User: Fold these one by one.
Assistant:
Number 1:
Amino acid sequence: MPIKGLIFDAYGTLYDVHSVHAKTEELCPGKGDLITQIWRLKQLEYTWLQTSLQEYRDFTYLTQVSLEFALRAAGVEPSENITKPLFEKYLDLDPYPEAKEALGALKKRGGSQLAILSNGSTAMLSALVKNSGLDALLNATISVDGARKFKPHPDCYALIEKTLGLKNDEVMFVSSNGFDVAGAKHFGFKVAWIRRGGSTPLPPGPVGPAQIYRLLRGNPETLGYLQDYTVAALTDLVGLL
Amino acid sequence: MPIKGLIFDAYGTLYDVHSVHAKTEELCPGKGDLITQIWRLKQLEYTWLQTSLQEYRDFTYLTQVSLEFALRAAGVEPSENITKPLFEKYLDLDPYPEAKEALGALKKRGGSQLAILSNGSTAMLSALVKNSGLDALLNATISVDGARKFKPHPDCYALIEKTLGLKNDEVMFVSSNGFDVAGAKHFGFKVAWIRRGGSTPLPPGPVGPAQIYRLLRGNPETLGYLQDYTVAALTDLVGLL
């Protein structure tokens, strides 16, 4: 079947979650790296724990409480003058450098709907695509709020057909996150994994928080659901169609 | 209600999961710390991903594939001469130094059943309690195999009443793992959190894999389910009864 929809993960795939680093370092000098990485690791853990606990509190809530966790873990007492600007930066993350060009080329080519399917809450995603200007290039921005589950739960991926009317074999799903690749493949999509920095070998010397993050998230999961394609940048996608 | 059952988490609570470190360092010189920490982080991630994917592959499988992940992440090709002895060591983890004494004192005191409720597979747990001799002190060793879910899914904690006939308010659940504390409290048990090293401040200098692990697992989760008691060692439990 021809691909009729390219569906993108947002955080880590179109948007650089680590672009909160500079603001974190400014507010918590010397601890920007540690807090940024713990924040993101814990934020994802909390999505999975919510599903395990059979609860749903949205990504706005989980992003805020995981930030509190990360600050305390790093020995910083959470106060509004730190948490407010950091959460606001999360609504205005930097897109990866090639994101706009890649989406522009895919839109110009035509023939496929372009959309986001993200763990983000409706409110967070709406701010994010607007602030970055990617909203003009996308047909839809779909939040897992519609399923009240988090990826990789199958109900999340089922939102694609519900929202866009696309069958599984008409979808190419694009993500940098190993768990999301596994979830999308398990659900039955064609999957392109974008390898964000995972391929470079570890630098010599001590392994710090950023490397740990990269190793945990930037390598293929060994759960038995592997991607169909691996790309180095979003601009490589057009060549797969 | 009086407490009629003390239920212990196994990995990280009675048994030191990092006691695989020496063997890992011996087999993969210079990489023992990194591999051990990534292994344990990924092993837990995979339990939550299994629940999210609505699958159940047991802890034996997940422990093996997460080890493969960790070895590859650290640039080591998994081969049987590495994976076999490491998995075997996982069946013979060191109990924490005070575990035997604490269980012995609780057994001598009487009045409460003593049991393990663990993510471990039936086969892994059976080997573990036998190899360490803790089987002689426990009334039961309960695997989440009986629920085909992983903690913190409520079906796991429900195994306590099914197996031991104890009502929620008769149970004191003991764990070092924040997610397990949250799950047990959410389910309705009284919960004692054993703070394994989490209370010591970060040492100065670079933050390495062991510190990251300690920060992620050794601090209370901010999901709104806090323990009733905090203890520094298992031997402090008898004072709570």
Number 2:
Amino acid sequence: MGGYDQTLEPFLWRAETIYPDREVVARTHEGINRYTYAEYADRTRQLANALDGFGIGEGDRVGTFCWNHDRHFETYFGVPNMGAQLHTINPLLPDKHIQHIVEDASDRLIFLDPSLAEKLGSASDPDAFESVEQFVVVGSTVPDVSLEPLTDYESFVSDQSTEYDWPELSEDDMAGMCYTSGTTGKPKGVEYTQQMMWSHTMAMLTPQALGIEDSDVVMPVVPMFHVNAWGMPFTATAAGAKQVFPGPAPEPADLASLIEEEGVTITAGVPTVWLGLLEYMKENEVDLSSLEQIVIGGAAAPKAVIEQYDEFGVDVIHAWGMTETSPVGTVSRLTPALTDAAFDTKVDKWGKQGLIMPGIEFKVVDDDGSEIPHDGEAFGELLVRGPWVTTEYYERPHANETDFDGSWLRTGDIVTVDDDGYIEIVDRAEDVIKSGGEWISSQELENAIMAHEDVSEAAVIGVDHDRWQERPVAMIVVADDVDREMLTDELKTMLQEEYPKWWLPDGFEFIDEIPKTATGKFSKMDLREQYEGKELLEEDAPADAAPEDD
Amino acid sequence: MGGYDQTLEPFLWRAETIYPDREVVARTHEGINRYTYAEYADRTRQLANALDGFGIGEGDRVGTFCWNHDRHFETYFGVPNMGAQLHTINPLLPDKHIQHIVEDASDRLIFLDPSLAEKLGSASDPDAFESVEQFVVVGSTVPDVSLEPLTDYESFVSDQSTEYDWPELSEDDMAGMCYTSGTTGKPKGVEYTQQMMWSHTMAMLTPQALGIEDSDVVMPVVPMFHVNAWGMPFTATAAGAKQVFPGPAPEPADLASLIEEEGVTITAGVPTVWLGLLEYMKENEVDLSSLEQIVIGGAAAPKAVIEQYDEFGVDVIHAWGMTETSPVGTVSRLTPALTDAAFDTKVDKWGKQGLIMPGIEFKVVDDDGSEIPHDGEAFGELLVRGPWVTTEYYERPHANETDFDGSWLRTGDIVTVDDDGYIEIVDRAEDVIKSGGEWISSQELENAIMAHEDVSEAAVIGVDHDRWQERPVAMIVVADDVDREMLTDELKTMLQEEYPKWWLPDGFEFIDEIPKTATGKFSKMDLREQYEGKELLEEDAPADAAPEDD
């Protein structure tokens, strides 16, 4: 009883059936590749035949180590539709993490870009990649690297038949896999069932998420190794939209020319990409008239970026998600109540993580597990659950005990929810400072301190305190010629005006640099380790620095 | 492994969390009822407590026998969210069918409108409705009918607590149930799992279907007993849209006033409703400026209706579905290739059943099971499958053998698919005429014949033929003063111009009236029975009337 299984295959079938002539475009080192959904579908069946011939079958994992292009897109449907599991690997991770990931996933075959072949080769110690029976370079030339056996994609695929009967899969079959970026410890694997990917695709289609139509031209700049480019290639296919893949390491000039020449209407990526395009536009004429929507994720959407694109008639909206949530969970669209709000209010809402998408649920709980009020002030940890939110990690029993609460995923994000329902991240669970039973957002203090023109970088960490459990200490990087004593006084005055007394850091420490993670973010874990046991609190710190005194 | 179960509860939770003040409006005999999603959600929990107190639990069936109003809407989430199964019963069916349906479903409790109480009462023979332990009249006065025990909705619900912890349900739990209208034999039950209803709701949200946004004001005129008003109340809730329920037996004046006063943007119903509104607008000033979209289903969308609403800036789109498909499967939106097409071409596409929605699949097969070409000419039976398409009927093993082909539902609709992917119904499988190994559409011939000004009604049926298997015969109703011989000659000439020779009816029979089904459609089954064995073929019919001769 019930309906037929939820699988990815109908999305490709629909594009091929209704939109055989709609284009898939990719920027490559050799120029623009351009073909239709009809040809694309043929290629996925050729790929399936090739994998079949190699002995890849249902349940086998196939890795990719590629940028955003048409061949990578061929694996998106070609691999899961035949029942194998597509494992996209992030080449930006440290070599030892990549090696761990491939071993952990037991990938049998890996597709890799020539420009990344050296990176993968260098990750390899003699015993590494034992599970991998074939490396396939996605390019015409095979680089000289110590990966074997090594062949090239066209030899692997192009002689195959374009006929292939996709099997009738179960919605519980594994379709995809990604690893978390592992800011704390080794990356953890998240597996996506056919059902999870079907659900995420349908949800992304809704006007509450991206609302992609067949008339859209969709360009994911977010890498296809970052949780399937936020699922955009699947969603665009389901819609029958034209797709544009910007290829390896696109520069602002490349993005500008693709937007202009292909008529891109929706694009998505991290904030730095869109800052870069704005910079480029200061010196170059760029026609953004086709562009309707930029989706920003991966980091907070800076208000200045939202405002500047608004002047070009482009809506910047923010989407929040995680590897664990397939990945999109919230999108910052405006509700009807905000249609007539002041522009500043709108920018404020667009900049938040946004509204939960239909079909999933969240709750925000404090230390006691009680739900916080939705007043934009109280904060707690965000928990989510739903059809495209994982309920466990791959073979990580310990994380499965700590990172889930029944059916709920503990996101590790500390958030507020305002009375319009918008979620905003104020900290990470491991960074929030617990003082006198209340929480202080380290990120808010950091942002306030970094707003001072003399401050290059700042991180605020919690330091053990006998009475208050933890107290905040600011670690600050400045130029040599800055008067540190005067700066400290100015910062104290500034913070006092904006925050309750018990939020004020009990120490201001000047350091040479703030340690970074592999992806360039502040590593407050490393910072805490470096300064563990050192005396950081000022002796004259107010002994009554607790919420009840405020 | 996988995500959390797909259930309806998150849709209500989302509306209450993000849109607590958005309105639910209902026209009643006592005037307009108006409350918010926050209040609505409270009412669903009161209802759940009432059902709980009565002893209704997971897996129990609760019937409704109601028009479109807020109380009926309360059962839409109140019943399935607590784990019971909502069985909406069609009051337009013959009494014996209603009795069969309630017995077959073993409904334990039935909510019914006062205006329908007599209808249900009259359906009841002394032994009928044995499974029903309680009738609840949705209204302030309890009518004098032979249904017992009988109470009223407010007494049942209003003293209950507004707190209720919805259980964590499985997506395989049964959430809904509807019966087919049973044009051939007894109505068949279709059960909807939580997953089917979740899937249909998400799919209906997509721009490829209705694309409902939170700023929309949604008014389902299609009755809530017709497969949950095509799922619109669930979809509108998921979107956080305002909802307007037009109440019992709305007249065109009622619809006009609701559209104007509540700012309706999307509405849906059968063609006669929209024809009625057009008639009304000839004599009355109606402001349709808020209205963006009319969704037509249940019967073909007449081109004249599409054209006339287009003049008011209202898009009329056609949606096709069945009880078995939850119900919507196709929607006639325009693809980008048609954006610049001539208006007539657009009207032609809008009037077709439309494009398959993302997430499900169809195929069209001929007698041999081979897929037909998508050329707009060839036709065959439409088969569909997907997450919101049932794979079996409730306790009907025989129908389950004949009406399904593996995972595919045989819709019984004979369709063409044009090269833009639009599906168009040309006949019903039981009505299509099989002549010389090829199929003739009875509906096409009927429409052509009824286009003659002297013809009141016409039905074309297949009559057994020794050589050609079947041959078409036209059964025609005309006024007494029409010259039948001359008309026959004119019709023959007319049809010859438009259709191949082998399509031409071998007989033209003049009859008093065409038998109708309970819902007013031609009953060609009855017609065939009435004329079985009678000599209907003209003696001079061409012996070579077969496709190969054309």
